[in-house]
Structures are given as C-alpha cells and as structure tokens.
Write a structure and sequence with these properties.
about 230 residues, seven-stranded mixed sheet, Rossmann fold, 9 strands, 7 helices
C-alpha cells in the first residue's frame, strides 16, 4: 500500500505588529512535497483553517527559488492542492504514516499554540510514526507532550531556525519568542550548524531541519525512515 504523508501548513499571515505579511515558506513546503510525490507517496495538505494558506511573498523572490519551486509554478495540479488544504479538525492520525511541518514565520503564531495539532502529534508519537519539521516548523511541536506528560521534545536531539539566523534576518524582536531558546527551555538537546547551512537531526521518530536549505534533506530522511515501516492499513 502507498505511504501517506500529512503536510501541515500555517494559516497565519501577519508578521507580528509590523504591518507586513508572512505565511509558509514555499521552498520548505514544495521541496518535501515533490520528494514525497516522486517517491510514490500520497500527500495530503492540511492547515488550521483549511483552504488556501498564506505564502510568504519573500519566498517567491528569485533568490529564494529552487528547482522544485520552479516546478511548482508550472504544476497546476500541485497549485490547486495547495489552495485547498484540509482543516486540521478533519484529520485523523491513524490515516497517515508520517507528518511534516514546513516553516515560514507563520507557525510562530499559530502552529505553536494549536491544540488540534498537538493532539495529532501526540497520536503520531504514541504510534511511533515519523514526525518531521523544518526551520520554524518545529514551533508546531511546542504544545505536544509524551505519554508521561513531559514535552515531546524533552531529551530529544532537535534543530530549528536558530537564534543567530533569526537575528540575521532582523526578526528576533518581531517573533513572539526565539524558537531555539524555546526548544531548549522545553528540555530539548539543540543541535545546529553555521547559519543557513543544511542541517538535519534525527532522534528516533523525530526528524528536524535547521532552515530552508535543509527542507529537501529532511524529506529524504523521512523517506528513508518510512522504507523500514509498514504503510497505514497494512
């Protein structure tokens, strides 16, 4: 049976009090999307509010483009799928083999405090299914807890967009918290490399990536891990 992947994308479009827009970062969503599709996986896109999630305008600028983002803009089927995400309230963990949380700054406001997402992540973790997130996507892990009530990330090696990277892009005083610091507060063992360089960290069923450049490699790690697991329904 075909492996089934759930991509959960932010619905938040306001960059704090700046008056600027934000959302999901295109590269972090479509690089994994195409790796999963090309591997023959079934991909479902979801978001807290459903429908069309906001895309960060900066992620479509030329300097942010990749082979996969260019492919996306020629792919009407994928574009339609991204415009019609399923509300999180309609998602059941048992229907999927893995969950993937792309970043963009939006998750720092919505995924980080979405109890529905936390419940899904907890169900994935109890079933020992793959949980993956990249850049600001790990903000979605914050509310989730292990079966013993401790934070899901406690004692786990993880990475995310770093404090240094946030400072470099000039948003360290705009975001509601610094993600690296928050993960450390929750008891995670934070692992990182130089700013904006690829870094993937896997600890058991949890796979995280540091920044946009890490999104494809995180997806590849998910694919490799899923090859050792039986698909849903088997």
């Amino acid at each position: 049976m075909t492996k089934k992947i759930l991509l959960v994308i932010t619905s938040h479009d306001k960059l704090g009090q700046t008056g600027q827009k934000t959302g999901f970062w295109l590269e972090e969503a479509v690089n994994p999307y195409y790796r999963f599709v090309d591997a023959g996986f079934d991909v479902t896109l979801s978001s807290p509010e459903g429908g069309e999630p906001p895309m960060d305008d900066r992620s479509v600028q030329e300097e942010s483009q990749t082979e996969d983002t260019r492919r996306f803009f020629k792919d009407e089927t994928a574009q339609q799928q991204f415009k019609t995400t399923v509300p999180l309230t309609e998602i059941k963990a048992e229907d999927y083999d893995a969950i993937f949380l792309p970043g963009g700054h939006g998750p720092m406001w919505d995924l980080c405090q979405d109890q529905q997402l936390a419940n899904l992540l907890e169900a994935f973790d109890r079933a020992e299914k793959i949980i993956a997130a990249v850049c600001h996507g790990p903000a979605g892990l914050i509310l989730a807890k292990k079966a013993d009530g401790t934070p899901l990330v406690a004692g786990k090696k993880v990475t995310s967009f770093t404090n240094s990277e946030e400072t470099t892009v000039g948003l360290h005083e705009v975001v509601p918290f610094l993600l690296e610091s928050k993960l450390c507060e929750l008891g995670a063992e934070f692992v990182k490399t130089d700013d904006f360089q690829e870094k993937v960290v896997q600890d058991g069923n949890l796979i995280t990536g540091q920044n946009p450049a890490s999104s494809g490699a995180v997806a590849e790690a998910v694919i490799t891990s899923l090859k050792t697991l039986s698909p849903v329904g088997k």
